[in-house]
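Q: Here's a chain of 434 amino acids. Please give me its 3D structure as tokens.
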Amino acid sequence: MATIDIIDATVRVETFRASDGGCLGYLVVDAASGAAMAVDPRLDEVDRFIEALRARGASLIYALDTHTHADHLSGVRRLAKKTDATILAHIASKLRIAARRVRGGEAFKLGNALVTVLDAPGHTPDSLALLVDAHLFTGDALFAGGAGRTDFVGGSASDLFDTFRRFEALPDGTVVHPGHDYVGRPVTTIGEEKAQNELLRERDRAALVARMSVRAPSPANMAAILRHNLGEADTASITPREAEYLLTQRPMPFLLDVRSRLEFEGERIDGARNIPLDDLSARLDEMPTLTPVILVCRTGVRATTAAEVLGRAGLRTHVIEGGMNAWRRAYLPVREGRKRLAVDRQVQLIAGLMILTGVTLGAFVNSWFLALAAFFGAGLTFAGATGTCGLALLLMKMPWNRPSSPPTEGTAGTCAVDGGAGAVCQVSTTDPPR
């Protein structure tokens, strides 16, 4: 569901928060004409954008990413294909598909609204920001209270320093819509950031470079994500009904579920094999060489990443669009198992409770309790920036999150239905859902 809907005299801004973290995407609709632009749509949120367009009676004219994302799959191509929208990309982008190229200082119309492009390098060389009326879409160049990391290839804290100066020149009332929210403020303003954001307030270039010099782990599956987002590979997707039909043919395709073992235990498609995405590269020898592979996960995101991995190995793949969620919506059969609360939701509940507790005790008991909220807030920020969540890894080791059926000798890499009691699989038990 959209988290925020901001309406003014010129444009309507609808904000989409990803279900598994702080990623934010936007639908910008010109109030007068209904012309719309999608900014940073994730692959697993394409259907939500289309539903919002229908609900608003809007037509999608443009779709773009503010930069080449390395931590999640872009939905720009799929959304543009479904709506006939024009894809926009910065002139410095290495996107390998047809797109209208834009650069800083350029302006174009979205219906009656004027869109101005700002160069915003630092996080990546191809980063851009968009100014629409009094709304600034900053991608990962500026967050509420922070900014995106600059330690990726092509990233530059020195360039980010210059980007900050461009943002500072805008009116204080300019509404900032960032690419991520790690502090519980998905909307801020230039004035607020000039007053509170320590990175934006840093006036010494060398000092900012020093502050941004810390290297963090790369996001999981970054190489495959970048291949998809740059258009180097275009995974074939099929509907659940098409997948159901293919699974009745002979020879039958290899149905591979790349979710975690816990998710697979909770529900699965009959006949599916389970190899979690994080284990896939090390287990390519278990893949068929002649049979096409049909991939499924919860929403289609991990399956698309897995298709990139298998494609490099020369395998033919199809991804079930929308994953298990779409399979269920199509009223296709699902084998039920033991259901447990997803680890990402456990993380959200615990972190949210600890932050709320820290703030409450800090306000009414002792200010030292605010350190508890700060600790968990910092942990969420680190997890969002690096794709590594220590709390999720810890929770996966808890008794309630352990798989109920241990692997059986001689079944490595396979899942055998055992009369309804579950599936016996040898898979990783430490991969958090995403």
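Q: Can you summarize the key feature?
A: The radius of gyration is 23 Å.
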